[in-house]
Amino acid sequence: MAPKAALPLPEYEGFDAMELAAHIRSGQLTPLEVLDAAMARADARSQLNAVAMRHDEQAREAALQLSRMGQVERNNLADKAPLRGVPFALKDLGVAMQGTITTQGCAFFKDAVASQDSTLVQRYRAAGLNIFAKTTTPEFGQTATTESRLFGLTRNPWNPAHSAGGSSGGAAASVAAGILPVAHASDGGGSIRIPASHCGLFGLKPSRGLVPMGPKLLEGWLGLSAQHVVSRSVRDSALLLQLTQGPEAGSRTGPQPVALMDAMARPPRRLRIALMEVNPFGEPLHPDCLDAARAAARLCESLGHNVEIAMPQLAIGDMFTSMGVATAVGMLATVSTREKELGRAAREDEFEPLNWRSLQLARSYSAEQVFIARNVFDQAARVLDLFLGKYDLILSPVTATPAPLLGAMSLDQPYEDFVKVAMTGPPFTAMFNMSGHPAMSVPLHWNAAGMPIGVQFAAPFGDEATLLALATQLEQAAPWKDKRPVLQGSLRPF
After folding, report:
1. 205 classed as catalytic
2. 4-477 to CATH, choices 3.90.1300.10, 1.10.3720.10, 3.40.1400.10, 3.30.300.350
3. Does 483 participate in catalysis according to the annotation?
4. Does the active-site annotation cover 91?
5. pLDDT at 87
């Protein structure tokens, strides 16, 4: 890999998206210069395998058009498109960009060209983002690592032998490696927060229904899935959430949009925070993850917040059984739609073994089982709503272990082996997908091996403002901006 100094715009990696946009508006940088910087880093750091596909030509044409604008035009776009010219990437799952392929990480979709933009992609374009790539994901986002038969292993920039997390591992690796300041991600069981934790980034999963998923499917996995980004700075996440939040035609659920940037400008009130120190499954919790949560608790106390050990009493077994039903049925629906488009049945050799197994199980599930699954989620939401009536936030580890070695959570292994390790990923995160509450991973801790370990905060439904206000306070008290993986020269052997 080329040394950092050999790459264009050496200062590029020190900017967040808002800083890049400000330099573009002032004329100090052009959209083309910034795009070239992102592309050069994607090329130089290709060993991480974070990028699934490139859309260089259309991105370069967009950058050229933007670069030809005069100062008056740039100023006129400042409010409408505050991130004009900032390079961006979509996760290769769940969103569509007209005329391009979204594979879902699956060979059966390797030629699936979108006929229209997703509503979210429309909003990203309106914000001024220049989409030049799609990032890697495991097949259908079904595991907490980013490994697939289709694209191979995505490596963690902090240690390439380890997973970048999943299922937004390509997005997280791209941001952590300095290719992008912010990237699209999605979260159906922890898929924003887990890779953010493993890669030393900020990652917020919004409340159910806050960010649009349509137009073809307005709610994914019975409401489990949410769309947003991973970022280096809290303010980038807040701005993009402010620019993309709100209902689309057909939406019937979701909280009311709020002025998130305004919320960030004020310190949070004195918060009552419940600290979860126990794995909901009753399994061991790695000391590094517990240390991270306890250190975050002490930091919050030093900032004037009240923290006490407490844990909601949830029917965890029923919840995860229901999650298995919802994700399998959702995957089956996606595959069935593609079968109709192609006019043929899917083949076993076009899927990861564990996902093929899930597809066969999904065909046996009854409507009653699906209905029960959704009710289990609703009951979990009720329990957490009542618990969050006593506390403002819930603090916990993000995962039960630090970033695992690559291969440990692969979908290409026997089911019994997968199960042994799979639940170390989402025991703390997935409950908030089932309940619909917002939750964030904040990069406050690095272990003795130099690997980042995030901590999770969850809030009442629709209260992203409190999360972002606290995240801003934590970012100021324990800055992580300058904590970067060492990427100069060659990557460590693997």
Report:
1. no
2. 3.90.1300.10
3. no
4. yes
5. 98
